[in-house]
Amino acid sequence: MNSSKADSKGRTFKFQAEVQxxxxxxxxxxxxxxxxxxxxxxxxxxxxxxxxxIAQLETKDPILDPNAELGIKITFDEDENTLTVSDTGIGMTxxxxxxxxxxxxxxxxxxxxxxxxxxxxxxxxxxxxxxGFYSAFIVAKEIIVRSRSxxxxxxxxxxxxxxxxxxxxxxxxxPERGTEVILYLKDDAKEFxxxxxxxxxxxxxxxxxxxxxxxxxxDQIVNRQVPIWYQSDEVTDEEFNEFYRQVSLDWTxxxxxxxxxxxxxxxxxxxxxxxxxxxxxxxxxxxxxxxxRLYSKKILVQEKAKDLLPEYLRFVFGVVDSEDLPLNVxxxxxxxDRTIRRISKVITGKILDELEKVADENEDKFLSWWAQxxxxxxxxxxxxxxxxxxLLRILRIQTSKSGDQLISLTKYIERMPKEQEEIMYLLGxxxxxxxxxxxxxxxxxLDQEVILFDDPIDSFVMMHVQExxxxxxxxxxxxxxxxxxxxxxxxxxxxxxxxxxxxFLTHIKELLGDRIIDIRYTEFLTDSxxxxxxxxxxxxxxxxxxxxxxxxxxxxxxxxxNANHPLITHLKTLVEKEPESPLIQTCALQLLENQELAxxxxxxxxxxxxxxxxxxxxxxxxxxx
Length: 625
Prior knowledge:
Elements (H helix, E strand, L loop, with lengths): L10 E4 L2 H13 L6 H23 L13 E6 L4 E6 L6 H7 L8 H10 L21 E9 L7 E6 L4 E7 L5 E8 L9 H11 L7 E3 L21 H12 L7 E7 L5 E7 L17 E5 L2 E7 L11 E6 L8 H6 L1 H24 L1 H21 L4 H7 L1 E4 L7 E2 H7 L7 E5 L3 H5 L5 H5 L4 E4 L2 H9 L2 E2 L2 E5 L9 H13 L1 H14 L3 E6 L8 E4 L5 H10 L8 E5 L4 H12 L4 H18 L5 H20 L1
Parallel strand pairs: 2-8, 11-13, 16-17, 16-19, 20-22
Antiparallel strand pairs: 1-6, 2-3, 3-7, 4-5, 4-7, 5-6, 9-10, 10-13, 11-12, 14-15, 14-17, 18-19, 21-22
């Protein structure tokens, strides 16, 4: 630091170059976020008070004003357009005030400055490296700091600056211990010399500072001091619910409350709420109004800290307060801060554990919540590989046997017959159609339960899930895996013994052309004449493509025929007797499009309607004869 000739009040110094750069950024870029300065000044005062409390316990030397209340006082003068923040904290010596208010001593200054210059979230960076004080220049044209350290033999010190590059320091008479920061407000910052404005800022950012804050000569304490998340038994459910209404703006009671106090490996407290009803905006890509309130030592540092929880838990409201977290919690810092990552891991795990606990203890209550928020859990299954098993335990499903009830995957496995080795599922557009699907017939005969997925997100879920409790998932609408050579030979011999089957299938395949991949007989049907199956391993993927590509063209499938169904046996007879009959192609196309219609993949229903009308006309004509 360079110094110049001392003036009559003391010595004048130049700011460290980095400090001047910070001042330029704060003054020129953050004028729209003026109120943040008061949070920083109160935070500094709270830190000084906290250090004073420790000094009172540790020092053996005489202390100045030993009986003074540890507190913060804010005064203002509307006529003079000044604002003063004072405290009875540990105070500063000449050397300390010169160092603390003229330089940045911490390492990493250049990296910090780069972030401050480049970050759109710079307002949340100013607490780092002790530069929060300089934010006062956003609203002040001149600042005077008067301080006296806590030893009884200390001297008062005054620091002055207009933020233009220099500051002066002089000794003064100051009888009381602590620090007062006097701001001469700019013309566009007169609103801060107003009690209502000051109270609203304190309530927003510093309501739970652990020392009393008073405004003016009034003895009334403005802030609550002891946060509700630091309390437990003495807080009623109604008080918790009232706090939930404040943080969520939801006037119904929360579904569930989670109160956490963690001491190791990091120290933090959290009060989290799960709502009963979903905000419609939560499901839109435009929804950004989420995130937990993040406090550092009871000081609000982020109103919406989105990185404290994975995005699929964006419906959670509440607060997190850490003793181990600095005030520099910008979005960039959060992404790399180990403390934040550890907190996120703990509270995310706790939320999922609590959901599972509620589901086990009160199934009806949980299912009511699931109807609103189940889609978020499914979203989490697609995103959170580390917690996928936990999320799958929370998942609720409808099956071919559950009626209108939803059950857990655990219960599904408990109900599986001994001979069933896989978890069967079927994806579709509509639950009513799924329940009538021909794919279910074989499994109904075996008394096996099939999961029915009818939500668009279910396809994405099953793209990411392979097994649960060592049971693999299997879509029932896909072709069986390729047979080994021995099975293929046996099948070939069987076909050679039944050449008429081959000729029938060959004829239908020729008529349907490239509408299908192949056609074959199956044992997986009992009541339906046919079904369409995906090639092995593609069932889920093709449905995902449908939702992702607006120009999606339905993929061709394999047509499987029930050889014992009356429609098939009559059609087969017609092929044998009148292979040139146009009715064969009409029936073949109708069988195919009946299944496409049921699955929602029929591209041209008008042609099908014409064909159905023709068939009805033929039936009626025949009935007249």
